[in-house]
Amino acid sequence: MADHPHAGHRKRNMDKFRRFGMDIFSDHEVLEILLYFALRQGNTNPTAHRLLDRFGSLHAVFEAPYEQLREVEGIGPHTADLIKTVYAMIGRYRADVHKMERHSDRLNSYERIGAYFVPQLADERDEVLLAAYLDGEGRVIKCEEVARGGHAQVTVDPYKIARNALLCQAAGVALAHNHPGGAARASEVDILLTNRLRQTLSGLGLELVDHCVVARDRYVSICKMQNMQIIGRRR
To answer: What's the pTM?
Structure first.
């Protein structure tokens, strides 16, 4: 069976979108692409133009009532549902971003980083390493357990942490691990690990914001300790 005559045009537009994003398209092309997902075959360009002619702008198309969308030639119930669903999702997305910006933890100081990790690690009986991936403002994009060991040590893969940070599109990483039954004191192994992690992340344009050692309700910041040592040597 021969391909539909408009299949090549759709594929070219989707390839362009994947490579360059939506900004390179005009308003009617944006609607044309959206309509692909409701109208599985045929040329959606005329319908996109009719929507813009009727409502005057891209944002007005999304804001239009369902009943008015249905009055446009080529817009059936499924297509109208798609347009209104996308518009509702845009509002939900904006609300979620606003919520994150107002209420998300900002790990932009050693004290805040310590206060963030202590409740998560204080009662752990195994040694656990947590990584918080941060945006440029220090907000937590995601926090996850990246390693778990026995009572004495945990095996760490710096490349796993770096890879996960890149997947989150993070700007920096804050780490913490605990010493079950021990003291909030950085060992030589902890310091070597911190330096190795810093080097790995730096090579990818990422910042190691801090690495904390937690013991019960106490913590120590390895990065703060190292910065103080650097300042002391300069004096």
So the answer is: 0.58
